[in-house]
Write a structure and sequence with these properties.
By secondary structure, the chain is mainly alpha-helical. The chain has one domain. The longest helix is centred in the first third of the chain and has 53 residues.
């Protein structure tokens, strides 16, 4: 009977020690993940700033005119075509009506 009590006490002691070791191990893992989370948040913020800089209208206009040689369109070069959807009852009956409008020459961006 004494041996059984000693074995049960040892088993409980080993269970307690194992539980404490797991708690410490998981605590270290949580701390590592917190550090990684902070690093990833910092990287995300840096990428958002970079995206904002790369997609700014001023930069796009500068690249379009400088590197690509694009220029704003001349008056009359842009034609806006407005296609109105046909009603299902009128499909196949007669020509399609198109509204054609000439765009005004107003620059969308300022070129430095």
């Amino acid at each position: 009977m004494k041996t059984l009590t000693v074995i049960a006490a040892m088993a409980l002691l080993l269970l307690y020690v194992w539980e404490r070791v797991e708690i410490v191990r998981i605590g270290y893992q949580v701390e590592r993940l917190k550090v990684k989370k902070v690093a990833l948040e910092r990287e995300r913020d840096e990428l958002q700033v970079k995206l904002s800089a790369l997609t700014s209208p001023e930069r796009i206009a500068r690249v379009a005119t400088g590197k690509l040689g694009l220029v704003p369109p001349e008056r009359g070069q842009v034609i806006l075509v407005d296609l109105k959807p046909e009603a299902p009852a009128h499909r196949g009956r007669g020509p399609t009506m198109l509204d054609v409008k000439l765009a005004r020459n107003e620059p969308m961006w300022k070129v430095p």
